Amino acid sequence: QVQVVESGGGLVQAGGSLRLSCAVSGSIFSVDDMGWYRQAPGNQRELVASSTSSNSTIYADSVKGRFIISRDNAKNTVSLQMNSLNPEDTGVYYCKAILRPGTDYQHQYQYWGLGTQVTVSS
């Protein structure tokens, strides 16, 4: 079984910062991409930032220069440092991991966490 668990959400005022963390655990052969997505009410889920196992990163244009994604491959964790937050950053943030489970290492699967709420007040 593979688990993806997010933590670190909360309520913050505009201009503030939050740090989200995500841990992947279970029977894992290797973790490839790890990323953060968010979904605001009435909107589709969108990519915020992602990182490959070689730490190549991509960011949504709306968060470039404000958010930083980082991962620890040895611990199968990924974090998202969010600075200069604004109300448009409000939403549920989900962690996604693309990995090869120990029970089926020849194939990649994607796993999602349950999400953590981020609310930015104006």
Alpha plus pi helix count: 0
How many angstroms separate the termini?
Answer: 41 Å
Strand content bin: over 45%
> In terms of structural class, how would the helical and strand content be classed?
mainly beta
Q: Describe the biggest sheet?
A: 7 strands, mixed
Query: What portion of residues is helical?
Result: under 10%
Beta strand count: 11
Shape: elongated
Order of helices and strands: EEEEEEEEEEE
- Average pLDDT confidence is 97
Radius of gyration: 14 Å
Q: Poorly predicted ranges (pLDDT <50, ≥5 residues)? A: none
Question: How would you explain this protein's 3D organization?
Answer:
0% of the residues lie in helices and 60% in strands. The model has no long low-confidence stretch (mean pLDDT 97). Strands 2, 4, 5, 6, 9, 10 and 11 form a seven-stranded mixed beta sheet that branches. It has a four-stranded antiparallel beta sheet with strand order 1-3-8-7, with no helix packed on it. Strand 7 and strand 8 form a beta hairpin.
Task: Please sum up the structure shown.
This protein is mostly beta strands and 122 residues long. It has strands at residues 2-7, 10-13, 18-26, 28-39, 46-51, 57-59, 67-72, 77-82, 91-101, 109-112, 116-121. The protein is elongated.
